[in-house]
Design goal:
- The model has no long low-confidence stretch (mean pLDDT about 90).
- The protein folds into 2 domains: about 35 residues; about 90 residues, Lrp/AsnC effector binding domain/regulation of amino acid metabolism (RAM) domain (Alpha-Beta Plaits), CATH 3.30.70.
- The protein has 5 helices and 6 strands, in the order H-H-H-E-H-E-E-H-E-E-E.
- Strand 2 and strand 3 form a beta hairpin.
- The protein starts with a helix and ends in a 14-residue tail after the last strand.
- The protein is extended and about 55 Å long.
- Helices cover about 30% and strands about 20% of the residues.
- A 4-stranded antiparallel beta sheet has the order 2-3-1-4. The protein has a two-stranded antiparallel ribbon with strand order 5-6.
- It is α+β, with helices and mostly antiparallel strands.
């Protein structure tokens, strides 16, 4: 069992010394292990988890369900890879269930996301249909709770 990877996923900014202490390994072993994870492509990058309500830049995030017709000799993979290349696409997943792909898209406005869906996504050969769901509020992002400290947790009940 890899001791370092779960620690990095929880806090990628942890120092090698802190990771060594938490994993009961030497700092040299931890540094070498992280280098190996990066070299082998296990760790692909590091990102900050940002509370969208606390930054000045307004943005709109949508989760889009996409039904596809699989391509000959490529199945869903070629279509998913093509869709993933759009700069608006933040994440793209092959799914089980009623639709084939779940695509997470970010834009500046509802119109921008709607334009992406109508002009770029749904016009792709093999896309049968889409269903767009707009994020209204985030409570947890990549395992991190986005704490809201303003106001009561429960809604007031008025007579």
């Amino acid at each position: 069992m890899d001791k370092i990877l779960p620690l990095l996923r929880k806090n990628a900014r942890a120092s090698v010394a802190d990771l060594a202490k938490a994993s009961s390994l030497s700092e040299a072993d931890v540094a070498a292990h992280i280098a190996r994870l990066e070299h082998d492509g296990v760790v692909l990058g590091y990102q900050a988890i940002v509370d969208p309500e606390k930054i000045a830049r307004e943005s709109v995030t949508a989760v889009i369900e996409v039904k596809l017709t699989p391509e000959r000799d490529g199945g869903f993979n070629k279509l998913a890879e093509r869709i993933s290349k759009f700069p608006e696409v933040q994440s793209c997943y092959l799914m089980s269930g009623g639709y084939d792909l779940m695509v997470v898209v970010e834009g500046r406005t509802l119109h921008e996301v709607a334009g992406f869906v109508s002009e770029k996504l749904s016009t792709q050969k093999g896309v049968i249909s889409t269903g767009t769901h707009f994020r209204l509020r985030a409570y947890k992002e990549n395992g991190v709770e986005l704490k809201k400290e303003n106001g009561p947790e429960r809604l007031s009940v008025a007579p």
